[in-house]
């Protein structure tokens, strides 16, 4: 989506089209009906961007959650802005009160403009005046006096949009980590059944770790929105590692996710600001220092992944990121396919398919080439079974991996990334 500057004439034409559509939807409407118009208050001559569309979709989702009986809906997505007209079988005053609560629910929600018209086309007034984005006072007073210039209003609008995007994507990433954690059964891994092949990890520990990373996830998105580059992301990642180790008393729960998920979130932020594909943005950033990271691993061998790379040449998370996260994308594709097919536990099936093909450095570290080959072979065998038999086979494999002290942690990371990519695509590609 390319941002376009719009003219006053285009905005006036859009206003006229909206008025005609409102009149048409309310023609001969009984008193029991009302019409909701949702748009965004965006200062300046660029009215539609990836960031505004994301905010609009969340506003529409919040409105739909109110559950008012709907008669008809019209949505337009033009350079003059994204708008929705929704005809309801509901009292106008109740709808107005509910939409005002949405407008006040968060800082960025102040950019929503919910107009509610009764069956005659009369627009209901707000009970409380809208607040100025710059100073927080009554917006009508600031508008009349022109207390703030356009640049100040645009800057305040941009700040709200950036905060909304960073918060939304950070909590989406946090939820992806929790979804991976609670996906069960996961052979050899911590899940709702057991702690897998780990004596120092459990569900509460992983949850504390995931929660500690939310500020870092917010920072990663903001850095991507600004196109800041690898150096500040790396610095933020080191701070996130310290926060993680503090939350887990020194246990490495999510170090790989700090690197991989941070890159993806950065790519998503960059995509929202500058267009392009989020995964490719992340991969391009990863490639800027992949060679240096791998050289350091070969020389120092101060991590499990580094030792495995030196011994086997398996590039792990660094190679995965530099190549554009192919196994995470594969896992997301399998996840979507199983979900579309109506499978009850698509994450488990997608994980199994990923275990069958991933050169998992966690397995190489714990079990060497034989351990990796065993898990891949078993996962391929299970993936060939009828889908209704796979979960039971994975439970049996879980017991065997615990016995062998094998943990496919790399595949678990791919599942977490797949959940994030899946949510991102849902956010960006949602039907209007």
Describe this structure in words.
By secondary structure, the chain is α+β, with helices and mostly antiparallel strands. It has two domains: 124 residues, ACT domain (Alpha-Beta Plaits); 273 residues, Triphosphoribosyl-dephospho-CoA protein (Orthogonal Bundle), CATH 1.10.4200. 63% of the residues lie in helices and 7% in strands. It contains 18 helices and four strands. A four-stranded antiparallel beta sheet has the order 2-3-1-4, with helices on both faces. Helix 5 packs antiparallel against helix 6, helix 6 runs antiparallel to helix 8 and helix 15 crosses helix 16. It is elongated, with a radius of gyration of 25 Å. The model has no long low-confidence stretch (mean pLDDT 94).
CA-based gyration radius: 25 Å
Strand order of the largest sheet: 2-3-1-4
How confident is the prediction overall: mean pLDDT?
94
Name the helicity range.
55-70%
> Which CATH class of the largest domain?
Mainly Alpha
Task: Tag the structure with descriptive keywords.
432 residues; alpha+beta; Alpha-Beta Plaits; Triphosphoribosyl-dephospho-CoA protein; 4 strands; 63% helix
Give a quick summary of the entry.
Helix content is 63%, strand content 7%. With 432 residues, the protein is of the alpha+beta class.
Record the SSE blueprint.
Elements: H1 8-26, E1 33-40, H2 50-64, E2 70-78, E3 81-89, H3 92-103, E4 112-117, H4 139-145, H5 150-182, H6 203-212, H7 214-226, H8 230-248, H9 255-274, H10 278-287, H11 290-300, H12 304-312, H13 316-322, H14 326-340, H15 346-355, H16 361-383, H17 387-404, H18 409-429
Helix pairs in contact: 2-5, 5-6, 5-7, 5-9, 5-18, 6-8, 7-8, 7-9, 8-9, 9-10, 9-18, 11-12, 12-16, 14-15, 14-18, 15-16, 15-18, 16-17
């Amino acid at each position: 989506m390319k941002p376009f500057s719009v003219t006053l004439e285009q905005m006036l034409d859009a206003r006229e089209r909206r008025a005609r559509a409102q009149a048409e939807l309310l023609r001969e409407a009984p008193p029991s009906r009302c019409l909701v118009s949702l748009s965004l208050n965006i200062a300046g001559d660029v009215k539609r961007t990836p960031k505004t569309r994301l905010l609009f979709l969340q506003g529409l989702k919040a409105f739909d959650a109110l559950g008012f009986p709907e008669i008809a809906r019209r949505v337009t997505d033009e350079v003059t802005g994204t708008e929705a007209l929704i005809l309801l079988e509901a009292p106008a005053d109740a709808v107005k009160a509910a939409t005002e609560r949405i407008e006040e629910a968060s800082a960025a929600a102040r950019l929503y403009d919910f107009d509610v018209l009764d069956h005659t086309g009369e627009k209901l007034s707000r009970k409380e005046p809208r607040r100025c984005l710059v100073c927080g006072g009554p917006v009508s007073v600031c508008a009349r006096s022109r207390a703030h210039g356009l640049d100040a209003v645009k800057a305040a609008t941009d700040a709200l949009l950036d905060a909304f995007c960073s918060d939304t994507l950070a909590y989406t990433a946090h939820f992806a980590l929790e979804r991976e954690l609670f996906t069960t059964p996961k052979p050899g891994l911590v899940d709702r059944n057991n702690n897998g092949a780990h004596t120092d990890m459990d569900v509460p520990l992983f949850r504390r770790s995931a929660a500690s990373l939310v500020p870092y996830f917010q920072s990663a998105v903001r850095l991507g929105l600004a196109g800041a580059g690898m150096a500040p992301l790396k610095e933020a990642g080191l701070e996130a590692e310290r926060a993680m180790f503090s939350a887990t008393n020194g246990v490495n729960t999510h170090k790989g996710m700090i690197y991989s998920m941070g890159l993806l979130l950065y790519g998503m932020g960059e995509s929202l600001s500058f267009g392009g594909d989020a995964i490719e943005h992340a991969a391009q950033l990863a490639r800027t220092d992949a060679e240096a990271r791998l050289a350091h691993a070969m020389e120092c061998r101060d991590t499990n992944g580094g030792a495995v790379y030196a011994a086997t040449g398996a590039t792990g998370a660094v190679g995965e990121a530099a190549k554009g996260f192919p196994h995470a994308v594969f896992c997301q594709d399998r996840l979507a396919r199983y979900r579309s097919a109506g499978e009850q536990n698509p994450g488990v099936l997608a994980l199994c398919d990923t275990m069958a093909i991933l050169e998992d450095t966690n397995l190489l570290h714990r079990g060497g080439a034989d351990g990796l080959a065993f898990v891949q072979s078993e996962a391929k065998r299970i993936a060939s079974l009828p889908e209704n038999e796979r979960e039971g086979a994975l439970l049996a494999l879980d017991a065997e991996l615990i016995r062998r002290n094998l943990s496919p942690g790399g595949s678990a990371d791919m599942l977490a990334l797949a959940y994030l990519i899946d949510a991102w695509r849902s956010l960006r590609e949602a039907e209007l």
